[in-house]
Amino acid sequence: MTAPGHDHIELTDTHASRRYFRRFGLILQHLVRVAGTMHANDQLSRKDVQVLTDYLTRLDYTFNALSTKYLMVGCGPSRSLGSLTVDKRDSGFPVATELMRMANDAQQASRHLADMPDADELKAQMIRTIIADHESPTRLQFAMSQRLYYEELTRGYLFWAQNDPQWEAMGNEGNRRRFLLHWAVYDSQVNLPVIYLMEVEDSGKVALPKDGFRWPGVQAHLMSQSMAGLTLLTIARGFDADFDDLHPKRLRRYHIGPMYASTYTEQSGPLRQILEQACSSEEDDWALAWTQEELDSDGTREERSGWFGKAQREIYALDPFNDGTAHTGATRTQRAIILPQRPFQVLADLSPPGFGDVHKFVVSPSGQVLRY
């Protein structure tokens, strides 16, 4: 591994790259189980779990695609391809540039596949190179890895840098239709996947998904406001002000990460000590943070809209336990950490300050997820 910048690290070693992707594949599987555990504890609805699982599955497929792209990193012709760049300080995830390049590759994937030998031909050439030429088929293995990468891109269903809003019907509230809008981004400011869910009431004449004017405007508005630096209150109020007949009743944001591992990231404070003391094996050398922000409407008021019209605006409930020194712009914020059993035992023994109100999800050696 090399360090090209102050905050980034490149995984130039084949084994380090493969270990990294294998670890993330397991972590994402654990996250799906965490969502199921939160549903069992009535922290998430069934619909919430379905939406979150969908994005986590897409993220898993994205990591799988990147793992095939960099499968032969550091070997022969792959050196010209470069290597995976990871944010070692703030997230532990690949930098956002990796997903942007992947989106560009996806646009040209079919052309690349048409110019490549198919998988069977590549395998046959590998066998001839090994048996007849007594050589390692490194170049052919690299070609196969790139073919698998482009095949993965053509299948779609990936987590992109921007995942446009979708809608789910939630029935009616009086004479208003209710929808769950959800979308996601790979935030380039923090190099983390972020998932948004917004519950809205629609008082328009035409249902939002069938409205050829409002729905494209809603999608464009939400994507332009999907930045970690904006509070939920700012996002909700901006949406409420721009759409008189759409009423955002609840907005949630899920930050997936950061991921901590002594092998790939630089962490300070208690987590560093916890991982150093607990990591007798590679399987235990990780912890993943999960933050859920929620903003709820607490009522409405009328205000003037245009020359003669009036519009209903939402009044949002802010955190009653905020002491006024920090403006979170949310009704509540829940922090969680997912980690293996050994690091959790060290965490429990050390009991460092700041972790008392953090929800702990512990992964047992058998893969079961328990909440503490």
Distance between the termini: 36 Å
Give the count of structural domains: 2
Ranges with pLDDT <50 over ≥5 residues? none
Beta-strand content = 25-35%
Rounded average pLDDT:
90
Major sheet summary line? 9 strands, mixed
Explain how this protein is built.
With 372 residues, the chain is α+β, with helices and mostly antiparallel strands. The chain has two domains: 148 residues, no CATH class; 210 residues, no CATH class. It contains ten helices and eleven strands. The strands form two sheets. Strands 3, 4, 5, 6, 7, 8, 9, 10 and 11 form a nine-stranded mixed sheet that branches. α1 packs antiparallel against α2.
In short:
By secondary structure, the chain is an alpha+beta fold.
Task: Chart the SSEs and their pairings.
Elements (H helix, E strand, L loop, with lengths): L7 E4 L2 H27 L5 H24 L14 E4 L8 H12 L1 H7 L3 H13 L6 H18 L6 E12 L2 E12 L4 E11 L11 H11 L7 H11 L3 E15 L9 H9 L8 E19 L3 E9 L14 E9 H10 L8 E5 L5 E3 L1
Parallel strand pairs: 9-10
Antiparallel strand pairs: 1-2, 3-4, 4-5, 5-6, 6-7, 7-8, 7-9, 10-11
Helix pairs in contact: 1-2, 2-6, 4-6, 5-6, 9-10
